[in-house]
Specification:
6 strands; mainly alpha; elongated; 3-stranded antiparallel β-sheet; hpI Integrase, Chain A; 15 helices; DNA-binding; DNA binding; CB; 358 residues
Length: 358
């Protein structure tokens, strides 16, 4: 540093002589000592002085961004599931329902941030018991977790499925109300042949199908064989994973109603605007048609149950009923037709008891 500048001593600059007699320059302040390059007054010296006088504050550790996933957490496993082909194969409505269940489980007591590998049957069973007031919802949760960990095993994220040993709760409900003959007649009195509500009833009752299939039936699904009309289609549910192909004869009563009704080009059922119904839209519209007939406890799904029950009352076997409804196991059919089957067996038993007289 020039002599005149040396006289202007820079603040906090001190000199120190090492054991070899070399003079060292330092910036010393509040216990902090920083070596400065010499000679004093050189560009290097001034740069070091400026840096020492204005040290950069250490960056605070980056906080986890809100919503950032922890690898190995339950939420992380869910996101991997949503990206998989197993998820892509599910029906959009099933995806929506299952995602909602998994997200509710993740939100409960911060389950989402906990390691999924530490989840045991007792943890799932505890949450199931907390939901015992709504057994159907509890059982749906267990089912969703079984599918999630089934994915985890298949994709080598885990080696066990803690939900498989969790028992479902006994349901307090018998499910959707199955229409009685009197209720069907009451609906038919309100909605005569030729109207869309009556066509909807006939399609559901005489085919035994879900509303997702009923709204898609159209002329393109009709095939004729030796003068008999058949509905040939693939059920909407599970069509991407395990498709169920059905051929159902069109009974005379259904054909009569189709012929008398105004139908669409690609679907028999169309809205007032002439468009095909969406699944939810049809469900809401059918609800209004039932309410108009004074049947607030009846639903379109209850017609599927009623169709199975009527087949059972006429002595059809479970496998014959499954050929109409498309069920792959007899478990659900048995639940649908339990009361009807009991009635048929009771009638047959009494005929045997009275030698054919009832």
């Amino acid at each position: 540093m020039p002599e005149d500048s040396m006289k202007m001593r820079l603040k906090y600059v001190v000199e120190d002589t090492d054991r070899h007699g070399n003079v060292r320059l330092y910036y010393r302040r509040e216990g902090r000592k920083v070596r400065l390059r010499g000679p004093a007054g050189s560009p290097e010296f001034l740069a070091d002085y400026k840096a020492a006088a204005n040290p950069k504050k250490p960056r605070p550790p980056r906080a986890a961004r809100p919503g950032r996933l922890k690898p190995g957490s339950f939420k992380w496993l869910c996101t991997q599931y949503y990206k998989s082909s197993m998820w892509a194969e599910l029906d959009p409505n099933t995806q929506k329902t299952r995602r909602s269940i998994l997200e509710r489980f993740a939100a409960h007591k911060d389950n989402g941030d906990k390691p999924y590998a530490l989840m045991l049957p007792k943890h799932i069973r505890k949450r199931r018991d907390e939901m015992m007031d709504t057994p159907e919802a509890a059982n749906s949760m267990v089912k969703a977790l079984r599918q999630l960990f089934r994915f985890a095993i298949r994709y080598d994220h885990h080696d066990a499925n803690p939900a498989t040993t969790v028992e479902p709760l006994k349901s307090k409900s018998s499910g959707y109300h199955s229409w009685t003959l009197a209720e069907i007649e009451k609906y038919e009195e309100t909605h005569p042949i030729g109207t869309t509500p009556r066509l909807a009833l006939a399609l559901a009752l005489y085919t035994g199908q879900r509303r997702s299939d009923v709204i898609q039936f159209g002329k393109q699904h009709l095939r004729h064989d030796d003068g008999v009309a058949w509905l040939v289609f693939t059920q909407h549910k599970g069509r991407n994973r395990s498709p169920v192909h059905l051929e159902i004869p069109v009974v005379a009563a259904l054909q009569e109603i189709i012929d008398a009704s105004e139908t669409g080009d690609l679907t028999f059922l169309v809205s007032e605007q002439g468009r095909a119904f969406t699944n939810n839209g049809f469900g809401n519209r059918f609800r209004k048609w039932c309410d108009k007939a004074g049947l607030p406890h009846c639903s379109v799904h209850g017609l599927r149950k009623a169709a199975a029950a009527r087949l059972a009352e006429r002595g059809c076997s479970e496998f014959e009923i499954m050929a109409i409804t498309g069920h792959q196991t007899s478990k659900e059919v048995t639940r649908y037709t339990k009361a009807a089957s009991q009635r048929v067996r009771a009638e047959a038993a009494l005929k045997k008891l009275t030698n054919g007289q009832t």
